[in-house]
Amino acid sequence: MKFGNVVLLCKNWYQTRDHNNFDTFWMDMAHAIDADGWSCISKNDVYLWCLHRLDEMKNDEKLYNISNQLTLSYIFNEVENMIRRALWYDKKDLDYRDALIWVYRSIISNMEKSYFDEELLPNSNVLPFSLHEAWVDNEKYSKNPQWHPAQMTCDYLEHVNNIMANGKAQDIDENRFNQIEASLYKNSYKDVRIPIGEDNLNDCIELELSASNLQKHNAKIDGEDVWFEIGVFDHCNDLQYPKNLNKSYKCRLKKTYDDFFDEYKYELKSVQEI
């Protein structure tokens, strides 16, 4: 079994969008799956991908020592357990597909390195790196309070190179993350992951738009009606089919000059409920 991007995600080398939101993890999986060579644009696609991989793992002689975790009885018992655990986070209606995806993640995360073949190095064009956040030790772990700064990318990469000395670098297009994020069929704009800094006000203009504006991809800027690209917010169910067309949102649009058409164009970079 290849130590690819899905394995990197399951083993926490990549950052997930929300640790406590069980029903958004499939989106991060879709990014990793794409980088590993398959295409998934919906939760059901990711669910079926996981089922196929579990079937393949069941027939892998190298995984004999964990064969008990690849039986139907084990997997479906863990799915039921995952649905029960979701109640701790008030997720009373956890989708069985989400539960299966999380069970797959759990199995992969607990597998030893010896079970894997070729090793790939993480690439930030697939998903953001899982950097340690800053924290304060209030004499809980030591005698003196101590501030621990957030992990820097250079330190993360040094750690990666120490752990994965034989890892193979990946050549991933820098726009690939946004392309995949835009292709995913999402329930809400709130589930969209925006790369850090993409909606900064040095590059973007901020204005108030209605649900109708977002649905039709149009806005009035400097007294002129303009059309904007929806970008990573494409295929968001609540923006495509809003319940209240008059609802207002604070949005940021990136303005760039298109040399080919000799005009300015705009792309939606963030949406925030007012």
Describe this structure in words.
The protein is α+β, with helices and mostly antiparallel strands. It folds into 2 domains: 5-121, no CATH class; 196-273, no CATH class. It is built from 9 helices and 7 strands. Strand 6 (248-258) and strand 7 form a beta hairpin.
Keywords:
16% strand, 7 strands, 274 residues, two-stranded antiparallel ribbon, 9 helices, 2 domains, five-stranded mixed β-sheet, alpha+beta
Q: Give the low-confidence spans.
A: none
Helix content: 25-40%
Strand content: 15-25%
What are the secondary-structure elements, in order, as H or E?
HHHHHEEHHEHEEHEE
Look at the structure and give the mean pLDDT: 92
What structural category characterises the helix and strand content?
alpha+beta
Count of structural domains: 2
Count of individual beta strands: 7
Number of helices: 9
List the helices and strands and how they pair.
Layout: H1 5-10, H2 25-35, H3 43-58, H4 72-85, H5 96-109, E1 135-137, E2 146-148, H6 153-163, H7 176-183, E3 204-210, H8 211-216, E4 218-221, E5 224-229, H9 237-240, E6 248-258, E7 263-273
Parallel strand pairs: 5-7
Antiparallel strand pairs: 1-2, 3-6, 4-5, 6-7
Helix pairs in contact: 2-3, 3-5, 4-5
Brief rundown of the structure:
It is built from 9 helices and 7 strands, in the order H-H-H-H-H-E-E-H-H-E-H-E-E-H-E-E.
